[in-house]
Amino acid sequence: MQLLSTNRGKFVEARRATPRSWENGAPTLASPHRRLTRGAAFQAITVSLTTQRMNSGITRKLFLALFATGLITMTATALVVRAAVGGHRWLCGNNLMYLTVLGVALLGTVALHLARRLLVPVTPLLEATHRMAMGDYSVRAPTAGADELARLAVDLNRLADTLARNDRSRRDLLADISHELRTPLSILRGEIEAMEDGLRPLTQDAIASLRVEISQLSKLIDDLYELSLSDVGALTYMFAPVDMTERVATSVAAFGDWFDAKGIALNVHLPDDTLIIDGDLHRVTQLLGNLLENSLRYTDGGGAVRVYLSATAAQLRLEIEDSAPGVPDDALPRLFERLFRVEASRSRRSGGAGLGLTLCKHIVEAHGGQIAARHSPLGGLALAITLPCHRQAPVGACGPCGGSSSNASRPRLPRLDDPALATSC
């Protein structure tokens, strides 16, 4: 019997087709030198397990260092013992003590040299980690080699990149928030000071202007608060079946007059089926309001906006496309970052704070869906949202998303001052 090592580190028995002989009633292999004792079997298992674990660079280096140190120690000890047994006179007196001290010194020198060799790739990692802990995220560790330390250096460099990017985002966020808060406050202060000095009379138009600035400031604060709640998972959602066909129709009707006032053609394509999802009615209404306001705010007058709603058996898909101005390619992935705007066309003059699409992304992901941005065939921006359909279809449902083809139960479309649409955008 012979122990063979498999690729999984296990051992199997391989029986050779060798004739057996019987000695004293005990079976043995025909060749005495092929006998495998318990000690040899244990040694074979140990060596095989050790070999299986030597597939990593740093482990191999440590093993070789310890093995070399132990081999030198055992060799020196064997020579001394052999000389002592042979009765050599040079081992008499203090010679043995001197030899022991010399051997210890030699062994210590070898061990120190090996330790320094092993610490050579570790020292740069320690220095890089220390500098990162002190706030210097520009440091990079050398990635030479292919062992665990090299892979650790690669991960450490990636960590430094992430920390540097997060630090820049934090600084930019603070600067943008300060600017967004300062702008309406400065306008309010200027308006009030002008009224106090008698430069501007207290008229209904002046009060309306102050009310607009206060509303924008209130929206910004509410959006920042909701984003902070969403970041820590504290934004509440009350999930229930929501008729998305009715909700989209309601939201589009609420924005209809505003699109007409700007001269934007609003084309809506809704299915005949009632499409149902599991969602929070307030958050879904806020989502649709943010999307439509984004198209209304950043589409040039005389343009067009298209709204498509469709569904399969498992997913609902909502697409909103608008006309020029468009978004550059490098800005598409960043549209959902908070306080990000394409300054060339979607600037602060349009009134947005750059938080609406960020809130949309948080709401969609909280409902288990996805949102993506791409170029619109109309020349502007296209936003595509996919949401999972209602998990349990109602009785008698025959359409996608558990919907029915009847429109008789669809409620009347509300007015522009629908309280359900009075959300921050």
Automatic annotation (TrEMBL):
GO terms for molecular function: phosphorelay sensor kinase activity. SMART domains: HAMP, HATPase_c, HisKA. It is an enzyme of class 2 (transferase). It is a multi-pass membrane protein. Residues 176-391 form the Histidine kinase domain. It catalyses: ATP + protein L-histidine = ADP + protein N-phospho-L-histidine. Residues 116-168 form the HAMP domain. InterPro entries: HAMP_dom, HATPase_C_sf, HATPase_dom, His_kinase_dom, HisK_dim/P_dom, HisK_dim/P_sf, Sig_transdc_His_kin-like_C, TCS_sensor_his_kinase. Residues 400-425 are annotated as: Disordered. Keywords: Kinase, Membrane, Phosphoprotein, Transferase, Transmembrane, Transmembrane helix, Two-component regulatory system. Its main location: membrane. Pfam families: HAMP (PF00672), HATPase_c (PF02518), HisKA (PF00512). The chain crosses the membrane at residues 62-84, 96-115. Its EC number is 2.7.13.3. It is found in: Cell inner membrane. It comes from the Bacteria. One of its GO terms (cellular component) is plasma membrane. This is histidine kinase. It comes from Pandoraea terrigena. The lineage of its organism: Bacteria, Pseudomonadati, Pseudomonadota, Betaproteobacteria, Burkholderiales.
